[in-house]
């Protein structure tokens, strides 16, 4: 996508893979700055403090972290130890462990002296693959928006939660990719952008939509239900950090409440994610998906621009207050209309597939595997 009219990606290799360059998303939307990571520990720190964020981009950054670990020490013990630290830095997004394990599976059978160039080659391939997956998700989801437009004959109002645009991937995004495709192809859209407390990732969504010229409006997290009740929302599209094999979805905290409101108002609720976000080992999302708990400071303080134009953090609550900060929640498959993947739109759940002995061939996730 473009920043100030210049085609830009969230991550790219430098100096033949000996370093990577990222957009420091902790400074957005106030300042656009890039940051060079030359050590695998820099990648871990970037993932941890959310300089990079979004399940697909976390995964690709993890792959490049393995590259840099291989550069430092390609021997088995050192590489496996580094990989363990990399994949455990954020537990909810399955793309991180998926990417790290994919790298290890390709590297460990090789002679250590041959591992670094092989690591660079695979990480580059995974980076480009992520772009193609996002484009395929955009193409698949575009059909849903176009169908609504043909029915409504007015701009389609889409509500999002968190940021699942190109900033959360290498390029194009997941939940925003269908919106970008619709906009580029002349289908009128308007996006309701949840602010998404406590990290305010909705501000990143608004920033990137603004860079592409897509009409949008920022709303408080709790405004979505009221907008649905008065008919101002035609569909909801969100991303995902992990999807179980039965179609339960872990996404940014607050997603579950949007799904409940959409169900109550008979508004289609879609999840957009690459198939690498599906954790085939898990079934019951509420019981089995690990939920990351982040620092209370994210709830008790807020970043913004001060009067001098500098990025500053202000305290919102009394210094003696405590806070809980679960970063994600889980939405059961029964609240999800469909899951938009690179291979098309699949149902999270169909009653016919739950019948004993069913060999149903409908477009459910189990037939995606």
Automatic annotation (TrEMBL):
The active site is at residue 241. Its EC number is 5.3.1.23. Gene3D superfamilies: translation initiation factor eif-2b, domain 1 (1.20.120.420), Translation initiation factor eif-2b, domain 2 (3.40.50.10470). Keywords: Amino-acid biosynthesis, Isomerase, Methionine biosynthesis. It comes from Sutterella seckii. One of its GO terms (biological process) is L-methionine salvage from methylthioadenosine. The record marks 162 as: Transition state stabilizer. Catalyzes the interconversion of methylthioribose-1-phosphate (MTR-1-P) into methylthioribulose-1-phosphate (MTRu-1-P). Also catalyzes the interconversion of 5-deoxyribose 1-phosphate and 5-deoxyribulose 1-phosphate. Part of a bifunctional DHAP-shunt salvage pathway for SAM by-products. Substrate binds at residues 53-55, 90, 201, 251-252. It catalyses: 5-(methylsulfanyl)-alpha-D-ribose 1-phosphate = 5-(methylsulfanyl)-D-ribulose 1-phosphate; 5-deoxy-alpha-D-ribose 1-phosphate = 5-deoxy-D-ribulose 1-phosphate. GO terms for molecular function: S-methyl-5-thioribose-1-phosphate isomerase activity. Coiled coil: none annotated. This is Methylthioribose-1-phosphate isomerase. Pathway: Amino-acid biosynthesis; L-methionine biosynthesis via salvage pathway; L-methionine from S-methyl-5-thio-alpha-D-ribose 1-phosphate: step 1/6. HAMAP family: Salvage_MtnA. Belongs to the EIF-2B alpha/beta/delta subunits family. MtnA subfamily.
């Amino acid at each position: 996508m473009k920043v100030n009219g210049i085609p830009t990606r969230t991550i790219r290799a430098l100096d033949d893979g000996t370093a990577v360059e990222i957009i420091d998303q902790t400074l957005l939307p106030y300042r656009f700055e890039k940051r060079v990571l030359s050590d695998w520990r820099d990648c871990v720190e970037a993932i941890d403090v959310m300089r990079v964020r979004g399940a697909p981009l976390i995964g690709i950054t993890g792959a490049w972290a393995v590259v840099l670990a291989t550069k430092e020490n390609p021997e088995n013990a050192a590489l496996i130890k580094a990989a363990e630290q990399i994949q455990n830095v954020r537990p909810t997004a399955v793309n991180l462990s998926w990417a790290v394990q994919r790298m290890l599976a390709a590297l460990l059978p090789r002679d250590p002296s041959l591992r670094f160039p092989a690591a660079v080659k695979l990480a580059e391939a995974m980076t480009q693959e992520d772009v193609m997956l996002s484009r395929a998700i955009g193409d698949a989801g575009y059909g849903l928006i176009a169908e609504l437009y043909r029915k409504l004959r007015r701009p389609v109002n889409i509500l999002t939660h968190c940021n699942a645009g190109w900033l959360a991937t290498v390029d194009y995004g997941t939940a925003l990719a269908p919106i970008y495709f619709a906009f580029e192809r002349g289908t009128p859209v308007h996006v309701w952008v949840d602010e998404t407390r406590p990290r305010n990732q909705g501000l990143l969504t608004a920033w990137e939509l603004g860079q592409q010229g897509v009409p949008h409006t920022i709303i408080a997290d709790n405004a979505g239900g009221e907008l649905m009740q008065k008919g101002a929302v035609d569909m909801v599209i969100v991303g995902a950090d992990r999807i179980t094999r039965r179609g339960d979805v872990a996404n940014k905290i607050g997603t579950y409440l949007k799904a409940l409101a959409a169900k109550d108002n008979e508004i289609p609720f879609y999840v957009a994610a690459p198939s690498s976000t599906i954790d085939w080992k898990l079934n019951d999302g509420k019981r089995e998906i690990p939920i990351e708990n982040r620092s209370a400071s994210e709830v008790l303080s807020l970043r913004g621009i001060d009067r001098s134009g500098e990025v500053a953090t202000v305290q919102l609550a009394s210094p003696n207050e405590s806070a809980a900060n679960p970063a994600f929640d889980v939405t059961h498959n029964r609240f999800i209309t469909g899951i938009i993947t690179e291979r098309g739109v699949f149902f999270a759940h169909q009653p016919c597939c739950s019948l004993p002995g069913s060999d149903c061939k409908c477009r459910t996730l189990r037939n995606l595997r």
